[in-house]
Amino acid sequence: MARHEDRALPTRVAAAVFKRLPEGGVLFSTETEVYFGVGEVGARIWELLPPAAHTVDEMVAILSAKYHDVTADQIRADVERFLGELLDNGLVAYDPAHPSGGPAIS
Q: Which among 3, 92, 101 has a CA at the least distance from the CA of 46?
């Protein structure tokens, strides 16, 4: 059985606007008018959404290569939490054909 983190990443929704700032970034939904400030790591996660990375494992590997002082398990937990916040705020969504995060990737 594949792990949850092997699933496809959600993609940015068309209504999400991102502005990179020196200390992180700002996300805004033009549909819901949700304003979401993010730090450096949150901005990097946003930038690593598809097509830059396709799975949580791939994203975690990229972040682990940059943040050597944090364990992959902690990075994975932070990525999952942040993706959940983005989903809850309508800034990302899964492909309608795979609403639970897509098929597991072996």
A: 92
Does residue 32 lie within any of the structural domains? no
User: What pTM does this model have?
Assistant: 0.84
The yes-or-no verdict on residue 99 having pLDDT over 60 is: no
Question: Is 36 within 8 Å of 45 (Cβ atoms)?
Answer: no
Give 37's strand partners: 26
Tell me the backbone φ, ψ of residue 84, rounded to 5 degrees: -60, -40
Q: Which helix (H) or strand (E) holds 86?
A: helix 72-88
Contacts of 45 (CB under 8 A, 6+ apart): 38, 59, 63, 79, 82, 83
Number of domains in the chain: 1
In a domain, 18, yes or no: no
**CA 8 to the chain's CA centroid:** 10
User: pLDDT of 55-87, one tens digit each?
Assistant: 999 999 999 999 999 999 999 999 999 999 999
What domain range includes position 73? 4-13+40-91
